[in-house]
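Supplementary Methods, section 5.1.

A reviewer requested that the exact input to the structure prediction be made available. We therefore reproduce it here, unchanged from the version used in the analyses.
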Amino acid sequence: MFPLRDNIPLSRVPVVTISIIAINVVAYLLEIRHGGSFFGGPTEQTAVRWGAIPYELTHSGDHCELITHMLPGGTASTVACQGQAGVTGTPAPQPATWITAFTAMFLHGGFLHIFGNMLFLAVFGPNVEDAMTRPRYAVFYLLGGIVALGAQVAAGPNSTVPTLGASGAIAAVLGGYILLYPRARVITLIFIIFFFTIVELPAFVLLGVWFVLDGIAGAVSSTGTEGVAYFAHIGGFLFGLAAIRAFAKRRPPRGGQAAPGLA
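The structure derived from this sequence is encoded token-by-token as follows.
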């Protein structure tokens, strides 16, 4: 299922949403240029270096790095962190931990991962942006990503699995969208084996599909170090639901079958 557009008219060009998508695409091309692949995503080393690792965020000053072990049948990689039992030495210089909380929001584990995220942001982001000032929308998006990461860290504070992707921030956008446009309809392309059809679906149906597609994309990523950040999705979505009324000061444009959720 691929959302194409909704039935809510825009009152202006969604400059911030377009910029966020462009930044994500450029970041993806940069992260795969050293050993990664276009469809498979970045290397494990890149994911560990620039992804947000819960262990680093909950153990101030301690850093993690990718360790490769030689095995009879080949090699295996694990993430080792300072302070863990049996871990000695000092890891190679790397970005400050607080920086990775932001870089992780603009990196992805593979082509399916970034394609799914950017598709849903392109469809649902413009109208959320339209309901507030552009600076407010940028802050809303970034805060949504930070809160989402916080939820993931809270669920597994000692996890050494790097978190990558815009899923948490986009989940915040979707949470805000549902409250702003509770009766929105989305034109959707549906593939059934070798056939396809175009139907109009309620936005909340597409929300459920987004969770499934994002989970599949993360699961099939070839880097092997990224997990599916389900708690980040939940945290971001709940943030969007809770914060949208504080951020959306512009009245959403009337039109289609949507009913603005703000007074």
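The radius of gyration is 19 Å. These observations are discussed further in the main text.
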